[in-house]
């Protein structure tokens, strides 16, 4: 990655400031779940800027640990959010089981899988791919439940947050599947587009908070 690409990636990462700013404006009237969503986005911004700084300065050795730890925290938050907002009890139970199983599976992916994969710890591939597809399926069913049970889901911030999570995980899963191939290198720019669209959904979610709590 050359310097211009690094700068562009850093600027694109700053698009997360839009939902962060919107969430900050609605922080007082938001419930606990929405407030924690703000902190989750702040964590994402901090991680992106940290990784951008490492690449920009050439200090890339900590990149993999930072990436792996953020993947764990992201998965934990997504499963927690889903089990906290889903009304349908069987689906909520599945999300809760996944939440408690996330850390053991992450430890397996980080500590054991690299040795099974011929000692190539390029990334915790099974963890990212599996948690993203599981989250996308749970979020997809949750969206169906919301559409069936509510007359106007567009005024519900949970709908927009869940839609953003679904879109992000479902699309990123396919990019991650090709990450170690030439195709993956060619389509990696799509990750920035996916993030921007997801941030748009999160922004709409924060914008709806006043209508439900005002």
What does this structure look like?
This protein is mostly helical and 214 residues long. The protein contains ten helices and no strands. The protein has helices at 3-13, 17-25, 32-57, 63-85, 89-116, 125-149, 157-177, 182-187, 190-207, 209-213. The protein is globular and about 50 Å long. It starts with a helix and ends with a helix.
Which series of helices and strands comes N to C? HHHHHHHHHH
Q: Which ranges are low-confidence, i.e. pLDDT below 50, for 5 or more consecutive residues?
A: none
Profile the largest sheet: none
Q: Please work out how many helical segments DSSP would assign.
A: 10
C-alpha termini separation: 47 Å
Tell how many strands the DSSP assignment holds. Answer: 0
Round the mean pLDDT to the nearest integer and report it. Answer: 85
Radius of gyration (Å)? 18 Å
Strand fraction? under 5%
Tell me the structural class: mainly alpha
Helix content: over 70%
Categorize the overall geometry: globular
List the main descriptive attributes of the protein structure presented here.
214 residues; 10 helices; globular
Chart the SSEs and their pairings.
Layout: H1 3-13, H2 17-25, H3 32-57, H4 63-85, H5 89-116, H6 125-149, H7 157-177, H8 182-187, H9 190-207, H10 209-213
Helix pairs in contact: 1-3, 2-3, 2-9, 3-4, 4-5, 4-6, 5-6, 6-7, 7-9
Brief summary:
With 214 residues, this protein is mainly alpha-helical.
